[in-house]
Amino acid sequence: MNENGQGAGTPARAISLTVSDRAPEPGLHLVATPIGSARDITLRALDVLNTADVLAAEDTRNLRHLLDIHGIQLRGRRMIAYHDHNADRARPAILQALENGLSVAYSSDAGTPLVADPGYRLARDVAEAGYTVRALPGPSAALAALSVSGLPSDRFLFVGFPPATAAARRKWIESWAGIEATVITFESPRRVKQLLENMCEIEANRATVICRELTKKFEEVMRGTAAELLERIPDEGLKGEVVVLFGHPEIKVATESDLRAALSALLDDMPVKEAAGQVAARFGQPRREVYALALELKRERDG
Asked: Which of 48, 113, 157, 248 is 20 to 30 A from 176, alpha carbon to alpha carbon?
């Protein structure tokens, strides 16, 4: 018997919930929206979307669809598109609405605003202009992926989207590969294999988790080392939204022989500086010292 006097096998009753019609305070309200399942939206988010004077969104079509799902009517309210390509033009309209004492609700395409989307400049400018900024917490692909990954969560680093080109991606990986933290990145499903290939050049045994289509029908979590997952990814990549996580780097005690061997394997294919950067990241050594060793090794090889 449960606290409502029902037996364990008694079907649950639907709970009637009413969206508030109380207007939010004037200011910018950053509304987190579902990353997959539309039912992941919070009641407070629905309240603000229902009553804000102005609605702004990275993609107004996505926001309209979300409003339709939850039965929220636009009722003639202004809707402003705010994204990477029009941010400088759209921001003044939002600031003007705030100056007029209105409330503005802003949502990104999915998840928490300002995480890998253009909203951070909006929030900064609104705060600098002296207006209120409020966050409505909710879904986040980065935190959802961290939760199911099984990787350490006491210290983590979100590094956004990797660069598209291989050379830039290698340097980007080097910038964080030695940090003692779980690293979270968003990646194009078509480039996941290339990202793993670049990681294998530095640390093939790095604990790696790929989360695909989180909270959606075909949600999938793949766990293994970077090398193991590389073998599982088809050449054409994956489908759907992808979050990739890398565990803490291996603790290695590198000898000079280790460094020389690693540098020798790379110097035939890349410049000294790039080879030194990769080896320094792989072994957690000071880049300056590894670079000096690489120069010495190159001089020896050049006679």
From this structure: 113
Helix intervals (H) in 86-237: 87-99, 119-128, 141-149, 166-176, 192-203, 226-232
Q: CATH for 142-246?
A: 3.30.950.10
Burial category of 221 from C-beta neighbours within 10 Å (exposed 0-12, middle 13-18, buried 19 and up): middle
Q: How confident is the model at residue 139 (pLDDT cuts 50, 70, 90)?
A: very high
Segments making up each domain of the chain, as ranges: 27-139, 142-246, 256-301
Query: What predicted TM-score, i.e. pTM, was given to this entire model?
Result: 0.79
Quick one: residue 226, left, alpha or beta (phi over 0 = left, psi -120 to 50 = alpha)? Answer: alpha
Q: Does position 20 have pLDDT exceeding 70, yes or no?
A: yes
Q: Read off the tokens for 186.
A: 């968003």
Task: Tell me how far apart the alpha carbons of residues 32 and 125 are, in angstroms, rounded to a whole number.
Answer: 20
List pLDDT tens digits, range 25-69: 999 999 999 999 999 999 999 999 999 999 999 999 999 999 999
Fold held by 27-139: Cobalt-precorrin-4 Transmethylase; domain 1 (3.40.1010)
